[in-house]
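Hi there,

I know you've been waiting on this one. I reran it after we fixed the sequence typo, so this is the corrected version. Both the input and the resulting structure follow.
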Amino acid sequence: MPPVKKRARSYDPGKIRVAVLAQFGHVREAVRGLSDEQLALPTRLGDWTVRDLVAHLTMAVESVSLAAERPAPARAETGPLDYAAATGRHAEAIADRSHAIAEAHPDLDALYTRVGERFAGTLERVPHDRLIDTRAGAMTLADYLVTRTVELVVHTDDLNAAVPGLDVPLERQALAACTRLLADTLAVRAPGGSTEVRVPPYAVVQCVQGPRHTRGTPPNVVETDPLTWVRLATGRLAWTDAVADARVSASGERADLSGLLPLMS
């Protein structure tokens, strides 16, 4: 899939920085309390253990520091809306790297401390409009940090699902940015105005080709909560299961999004 040139909305760089730091901090505190037995538990990510998952979460933020240390690209080529496609292309390499980090760092607390301090230092000294080179292509630091909210929110949810009773909190601003980015990605993948997708209180987008409504209630409406939307968009939850369990409300002949999801996996 070619890079998407459209950017659906802007984000406050300061708020995104705070949200990413806070969400990583929540995970860091949770990891400190995990036992060896809990770290060996399976996850919903295939052959990944909890240890592999928490190792991967350090990759999500350390990639910012590593990118900021490389020479700046000449120009921006992509934006946050290209992120989902890029992740799918590099899924195997990402998994291999996560396993390798887990094996190389038995002391996860030390790893999180080092990565967290380096990450905080990067955000203090690097301006938000600095261009960096990422897996998805060249983009500004501010844009790349928006994609980090997806990594952190999605995998925090994976962690909570894998470890009974863990309940790592989700930072509100991080969840909001994650929800909006994935909703905007759907609108770009399936352009149109026949279907309205509502994820209150964070996002409303129109998508899918067909008759466009101009006033009143649109004929095709999908509505769900933020976490259900995130799980649908990332392949953690099947559309049919979400509808059957009443986690999604879908009305209208163009309200079936099963053929468009997941956006990333």
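Quick highlight: DSSP finds ten helices and six strands in the chain.

Best,
R. S.
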